[in-house]
Design a protein that fits this description.
The protein is of the alpha/beta class. The protein has 3 helices and 40 strands. The mean pLDDT is 94. Belongs to the transferase hexapeptide repeat family. LpxD subfamily.
Length: 340
């Protein structure tokens, strides 16, 4: 795809300073810019590169005034970083704007779908599935019976969505995701053997949810496992049965959340965090990477460690952790001098 500076400025509501007809066909970092590429300058420490780069078009803030002659055409906007992000979103929208049904695809006679859908080769669409308008189902996706998927949602190649799952509008499901597999429910008998507890619930993803590659979200034992509007999950996360995650919470890779835990709104959870089951985590909580959460957490707490403690207390304690060998030596010397 190729765009002129004038076309890009129109998308971003920006102002062209230079040749409006210069064309670009790829994106680049400002320090690696080549002819035909588009880049941006938002961080002042990268300003020297604007005089060296060979990028054809550069997005800058409106208040930027060059101190040397430039070879590039500028597009001036209110916020260069935000504008570049907007352009990336537009680029992805154009790139992923596939339509039509490839062959072979299996679509149940009882399934329905809206206009402008895309069904990639070897996709399976089960009984009573409902797909909204402009839904994109990439190759080798499995969608089980009675699944609903809202308009403008994208399901990338190889994802598996089990029966009864409900997915809202404007969601993104990346490759290798499994939604709706059985929760880990077993009960021991008198002989120490484990019997499976049937998992009869489902998974509900509200609008504008992103699920990273390789993430698994288990169906509920009863009721629903729920990800509220705007939740963002990184790659390789495990969400167990009957978990509920509040609006606009973000979770980094390799985090595991055990069954029936409820997480509030606008939380930020770092990578490799482990969270036990049947607890409640409040709103706006921040949990540092590799922490272990084993208790209820109040609103606005910041935590670190395993088991996790208040972030400030952890930092103070860590000073002593590092000095423990030296402190032990001092104690041993004191005891020795006292004849103990």
């Amino acid at each position: 795809m190729e765009f002129t500076a004038s076309q890009i400025a129109g998308i971003l509501e920006g102002e062209v300073d230079g040749n409006p007809e210069v064309a670009v066909h790829k994106l680049s970092k400002i320090e690696e810019g080549e002819a035909g590429s588009l880049t941006f300058l938002a961080n002042p420490k990268y300003t020297p590169y604007i005089y060296q780069t060979e990028a054809s078009v550069i997005i800058v803030n409106r208040d930027f005034t060059p101190e040397q002659e430039l070879n590039s055409t500028l597009i001036k906007v209110d916020d260069a970083y935000k504008a570049f992000s907007q352009l990336l979103a537009y680029y992805n929208q154009v790139k992923n704007n596939k339509k039509g049904i490839e062959n072979p695809v299996f679509v149940s006679d009882s399934a329905t779908y809206g206009s402008d859908v895309y069904l990639g080769a070897f996709a399976y669409i089960g009984a009573n599935v409902v797909l909204g308008e402009n839904v994109k189902i990439y190759p080798n996706v499995y969608i089980g019976d009675n699944v609903t998927i809202g308009s403008n949602t994208i399901v990338f190649a190889g994802a598996k969505i089990y029966s009864e799952t409900q997915i809202g509008k404007d969601c993104v499901i990346h490759s290798g995701v499994i939604i709706g597999a059985d929760g880990f429910g077993f009960t021991p008998d008198e002989n120490g053997e484990f019997t499976k507890v049937p998992q009869t619930g489902n998974v509900v993803l509200e609008d504008n949810v992103d699920v990273g590659a390789g993430t698994t979200i288990d169906r509920a034992t009863l009721g629903s496992t729920v990800l509220r509007r705007g939740v963002k999950l990184d790659n390789q996360i495990q969400i167990a049965h009957n978990v509920e995650i509040g609006e606009h919470t973000v979770i980094a890779a390799q985090t595991g959340i055990a069954g029936s835990t409820k997480i509030g709104r606008h939380c930020m959870i770092g990578g490799q965090v482990g969270i036990v089951g049947h607890i409640v985590i409040g709103d706006r909580v921040r949990i540092q990477a590799q922490s272990g959460i084993s208790r209820n957490i109040k609103d606005d707490e910041v935590l670190q460690g395993s088991p996790a403690m208040v972030y400030g207390d952890y930092n103070k304690s860590y000073v002593h952790f590092r000095n423990l060998p030296r402190l032990v030596q001092r104690i041993e010397k004191l005891e020795s001098s006292n004849g103990n």
